Write the structure tokens for this entry.
Amino acid sequence: MDILQTLILGLALGGVFALMGSGLSLIFGVMRIVNLAHPALIIGGAYVAYWAFRLWGVDPLVMLPVAAVILAAIGVVLYKLVFEREARSAKYTEMTVLLTFALAMMVEGALGTAFSNTQRVTSPDYATDAFFIGSVFIPKGQLYAGIVSLAIIGGLALFLKYSRFGYAIRATTQNRDAAELLGVNVNLVGMMSFAIGIGLAGAAGALVSFVFSFFPAKHWEWIAVLMSLVVLGGMGSILGTVVASFLLSVIAAFVGVYAGASWSTMTFFLALFLVLLIRPQGLFGEKPELA
């Protein structure tokens, strides 16, 4: 029964991790931006949900689309100010690592100045409640967050597969130059993809606000976790990120139970190291060609 309980807890958190990583994966897939500021922006979304609940009693699930829209708007501004000009540079990906690292520190500083580094958590009634099936319990907060995460990712998948703009995004992901030759406005696609990716960070933040405790500097703990998900799944593969999220979340849950909570997070770090060492293209990524 302990095995079933641990499996349930791991799967419940896997959905949240999948949403946290999907925006990061989308942004890299379309724009080749390694967004180290993604977890800091997730925390920004968490603060939007937290203060709405604290000041006006608005449920974080209700605030989720609001947080997503606010962060998406911030994403448009960031793209225009920071990332648009150098998009054609041969060293663009390497440049974005430095740019987003600096952006992460600025976001952390701004959030720390505004809200201090006090640990916070949004506390709707369901966050501390659970469903019981015999001796097995399913935390309502994690269950709701997981279901909502999968619904959002499913909607994103349908949008990318069936919408006209989704075709343009997928074409740009596969071959930016060829897509431009076929009439795709790759600059608009890049901007909107970046905005959608940051909007997903805002949505994830609303869920994170009641699933985890958070504070501005928390993003340094999450960056390796999210990178392990994206790298294991295959850089740019949203499906790969989802699969990796559930896989590593379940493994981390079992490690936490049988080896101690301090080793649970190490699961993600070790996975990142081993994937880069053994299979750098990840589960669903393309094997890099040798020059």
About this structure: The CA atoms of residues 15 and 71 lie 20 Å apart. Residues 2-31 form the longest helix (30 residues).
